[in-house]
């Protein structure tokens, strides 16, 4: 029977599972709703039975599992702390519970760190040693990989870049602070800013693009900005200015080889990156910022599950990361 590894990405709304052979060939994929209201025990039961089906169908025997989960983590103990979108998971021993169900060693990691590792191993970060990954989505998540390793820091808090202060006295953030990076540059922030300006009666084609203000998304604003709508263009450019400040600070601090941007806001590609790069270069004085690649992520919504596969593989690999 062939040996395989599993990557499991547990999100607030969806769970993705992938199997790879020990030689790196993807052999099975599943994507299904989390049903967060079920709580951790039943959700992990669903995951375990799905993994058993997948190994039976592919006639493989699992040797290692990587698991990604939102929230902050105690990586050493495999415990999740305070995942906002998974009620009942606080202090839940995710890694041990999966090991007990499937009889295979499991490694737990924060979902944003795994997305970073996924891009580093399989996507836009391949070939680099040092990258910073940002996901610009409903919030902003981040992961820092240096010398090929995820940087964890005290309390595994490294890479929580969404909560750097970028604008003192800026909008109130879900974390309790004001003017965090994600209150200015996440998809939620872009939509909110457009809604605020529309509510003041400013004209915009956005009103023709959606039937209700709740339907405004960052993609709607990006597409209106692309059509040269004044309101949308100003909201979009203001976001890019703050994004350049945040990324500029990260580059000044870390001097990575590449900054990889994923998530829905980054899906606009060069519409975001082309004006962003020179604004970053203006801000960064002590690092040769032109040599830092600013790239769009290439794995789209799959970077988390790719990262989970990468960490499962690392757990059983004896090869050095770099030679
Ligand atoms: Zn915050």
Mind explaining what this structure looks like?
The chain is α/β, with parallel strands linked by helices. Helices cover 38% and strands 22% of the residues. It has helices spanning 39-58, 94-102, 111-122, 182-185, 187-199, 206-209, 218-226, 230-254, 270-283, 303-316; strands spanning 2-10, 14-21, 26-33, 60-69, 72-74, 79-81, 92-93, 106-110, 131-136, 140-146, 149-150, 258-262, 293-296. The strands form 3 sheets. The chain has a 5-stranded mixed sheet. The chain has a 5-stranded mixed sheet with strand order 11-10-9-12-13, with helices on both faces. It has a 3-stranded antiparallel sheet with strand order 5-6-7. A hairpin with a 4-residue loop joins strand 2 (14-21) and strand 3 (26-33). Helix 5 packs antiparallel against helix 8 (230-254). The chain is globular and about 65 Å long. The model has no long low-confidence stretch (mean pLDDT 94).
Please give a quick description of this structure.
The protein has 323 residues and is an alpha/beta fold. Helix content is 38%, strand content 22%.
* pLDDT < 50 runs, ≥5 residues: none
Principal-axis shape equals: globular
Strand adjacency order, main sheet: 3-2-1-4-8
Give every kind of bound small molecule, once each.
zinc ion
> Secondary-structure element order, as H and E?
EEEHEEEEHEHEEEHHHHHEHEH
**Residue share in helix:** 25-40%
Distance between the termini: 32 Å
Radius of gyration: 20 Å
